[in-house]
Amino acid sequence: MTIAELADELDGEFDRACHSSNLVNVPSRHLGSWRFNDDPRTLRIAGVREFNRSLFEMLDQAETPAEAAEAFETYIHAVFGIDPEQRDRPTGSRRRFRSSYMRLLRGWGYDSNSPEGAVIKGWVESRFGLLPTHHKEPINPDKVDVWTAYVAEKMATRFHDNSIYVQFDLLYEFCQWQFRRFDPGRTHVTLFRGTNEYDETKVVQQIDRRTAVVLFNNVLSFSSDRDIAGIFGSRILEAQVPVTKILFSNALFPRHPLQAESEHLVIGGEYRVVVRWD
C-alpha cells in the first residue's frame, strides 16, 4: 500500500478524537494525524512567550542545558510560589503544598491513570485539542460514566490551585526552547514503548507484519532506551516522534522524577510505528 492510498483510506479517521479548536497554530485534526509527524512544524502555545519574556531572556543567557534548567526552575518557583521542599516531597505526603508541574510528573510516573494523569491529559486536550482515548479504561461515546469520571479528576481543585495548566505551558515551551538551542536542526527522536498488548492504543491500519498506523492516547510515555521499554512488554513499538510533540524529556533536567526510565512525555494522536519483538 502506498502512502497516498493509506492517506485516502484513513481520511477522517481522526475526526472523532479531537476538538475543532486549540491554542496552537495547527488545526487539531492535522496535528493529531500521522501525516503531521512526517512533516512537522513548530508549535507555539498562544501567549506563553509574550507573557513570560523575562524567562526567555534568562534562558538566552544560559550556556549549557544544566544552566538553562536551573534558570527555568528558579523562575517557576518564584512566579508560582513553590516551596523548594516540594522537589523531593513524596506524592502521598499529608502536608499541603501549592500544586506544581513536578508533583504531577511524579504522579504520572507512578500511574498514568492517576488523578495527576487526568490533569495532564486535560492540559493536552485544552492546549492541543486532542481528546484522551483512555483513562483507567477506554473512553468512547457509549461510556458516559467513564468520560464523567475523567472530567471530574482532570478538574479536581486539589491540582488547580496554582495555575497548573500555565506551569505546563511553560514546561512545554521550555523543552522546545532547549531542543532549538542545544540540538538545532533535529526534527525527530527515535523512541520506544513496550507493551504486551496494544492496551491504550488503537490499531488504525496494519500496513504489513511489522508496520502499523496506531492511535495513541492524547499524551503518553516513551523511552529513549529500547531495553528499558522492553521491561514493560515483549512487543516494542518504535516511533519517529517529532521534537515539536515532546512535552518533557528526561535529559533536560538534572533532577526530576522520571529519570530512571529514560522517559519522554509525548503528545499523542496517530503514529506510524514499527512493531518489534524481544
Describe the protein.
This protein has 278 residues and is of the alpha+beta class. The chain has one domain. Helix content is 37%, strand content 21%. The protein contains eleven helices and eight strands. The strands form two sheets. Strands 3, 4, 5, 6, 7 and 8 form a six-stranded antiparallel sheet that branches. Strands 1-2 form a two-stranded antiparallel ribbon. A hairpin with a 4-residue loop joins strand 4 (202-206) and strand 5. It is globular. The model is unreliable at 1-13 (pLDDT under 50).
DSSP E strands, number: 8
The helix content, as a percent range, equals 25-40%
Query: Nearest-angstrom radius of gyration?
Result: 18 Å
Mean pLDDT equals: 87
Structural class of the helices, strands and pairings? alpha+beta
Form type: globular
Note the run of SSEs as H and E.
Answer: HHHHHHHHEEHHEEEHEEE
Total of domains: 1
How would you classify the quaternary structure?
single chain
Tell me the major beta sheet: 6 strands, antiparallel
End-to-end Cα distance, whole Å, is: 27 Å
Strand content: 15-25%
| Uncertain residue ranges | 1-13
Alpha plus pi helix count: 11
